[in-house]
Amino acid sequence: MALSLMPNAYDPILSVWDKAKHFAAFFLLMALFHKAWPNRPTFLKKCLLLVLYGLLVESLQTLTPDRHFSLLDLLANTTGIAAFACAMRMKALISEKLSNGKKQNKVQVNPPVPNKESITDMETAEQERYHP
Asked: pLDDT (tens digit, 9 = 90+) per residue, 38-52?
């Protein structure tokens, strides 16, 4: 917040570097927010809260003498948040795919112990095999 409201001698309105800084800052803020509170609030609420925070920062910049509200900055902020959300979704999909692969390739080390009925059936089948 402090960096966003400090006086700024050079104000790159359409600078790609400026938008990249906004993207990176909000990607990192979202990562920290998610890491600090992994279970609450929900992931979507975290995203919305951070978008609102970006809107608040941009709105407060109108109160400073040399900064201004920028929809492009807000878009860069939101894109950083969305990129983190996409990265988390990709991570979840990859983890799910890997865990499903492990379950399918898992070899059963100990066969199941037969119950009483199946032992009787096996004995009957064995007797019929040798004594028809």
From this structure: 888 888 999 999 999
Locate 10 and state its tokens: 């050079």
Helical segments of 10-106, H only: 16-36, 43-60, 71-105
CA distances from 12 to 5, 16, 49, 59, 116 (A): 15, 9, 26, 18, 80
9-48 pLDDT per residue, tens: 655 555 668 889 999 999 999 999 999 988 888 889 999 9
Distances in Å between the Cα of 127 and the Cα atoms of 70, 113, 114, 118, 130 are: 87, 21, 18, 14, 5
**Cα distance between residue 37 and residue 35, in whole Å:** 6
Entry pTM:
0.68
* Cβ contact 47:30 at 8 Å: yes
DSSP state of 14: T
Residue 112 to residue 101: CA distance in whole angstroms: 22
Two tokens, residue 97: 């795919």
**CA–CA distances in Å: residue 84 to residues 45, 91, 131:** 14, 10, 71
Helix (H, G, I), strand (E, B) or coil at 98: helix
